[in-house]
């Protein structure tokens, strides 16, 4: 039934209400988070998928949690995280944190964050991070 689904607009509004930062914009992060929950990639999240994801995030093994997190960062679902995808997610996280954090974030902080991420995770230096590289690096 239609009531068993959450549409993206509703999801975004709910997440924006939960974000505790006064001056933040959680809309882009909500978009990426919704896409991670939307396993069918059809613009809506079934209740079962939502509960399954929460179960993984709360009670899953480390490997299951890392696989789910990798899926969040792999925006185009091609099995790799590239720098553009990582930059989009990191910018969304920084936007959610707000512009009035202390200490004040520098303008190039997202780019620096992505560079550090790739230095640590892109083991074979081919410009993308695979699931295996992601899991291996996180477990180190």
Automatic annotation (TrEMBL):
Keywords: Calcium, Metal-binding, Repeat. InterPro entries: EF-hand-dom_pair (IPR011992), EF_Hand_1_Ca_BS (IPR018247), EF_hand_dom (IPR002048), Recoverin (IPR028846). CDD domains: EFh (cd00051). Residues 25-60, 61-96, 109-140 form the EF-hand domain. One of its GO terms (molecular function) is potassium channel regulator activity. It comes from the Eukaryota. One of its GO terms (biological process) is regulation of potassium ion transmembrane transport. GO terms for cellular component: voltage-gated potassium channel complex. This is KCIP1 protein. It comes from Turnix velox. The gene is Kcnip1.
């Amino acid at each position: 039934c239609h009531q068993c689904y959450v549409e993206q607009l509703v999801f975004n509004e709910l997440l924006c209400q939960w974000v505790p930062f006064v001056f933040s914009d959680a809309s882009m992060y909500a978009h990426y988070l919704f896409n991670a929950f939307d396993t069918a990639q059809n613009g809506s999240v079934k209740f079962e998928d939502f509960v399954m994801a929460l179960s993984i995030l709360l009670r899953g093994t480390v490997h299951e949690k890392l696989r789910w997190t990798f899926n969040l960062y792999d925006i185009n679902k091609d099995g790799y995280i590239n720098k553009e995808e990582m930059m989009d997610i990191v910018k969304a996280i920084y936007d959610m944190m707000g512009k009035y954090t202390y200490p004040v974030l520098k303008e190039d902080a997202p780019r620096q964050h992505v560079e550090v991420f790739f230095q640590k995770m892109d083991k074979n230096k081919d410009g993308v991070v695979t699931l295996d590289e992601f899991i291996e690096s996180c477990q180190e």
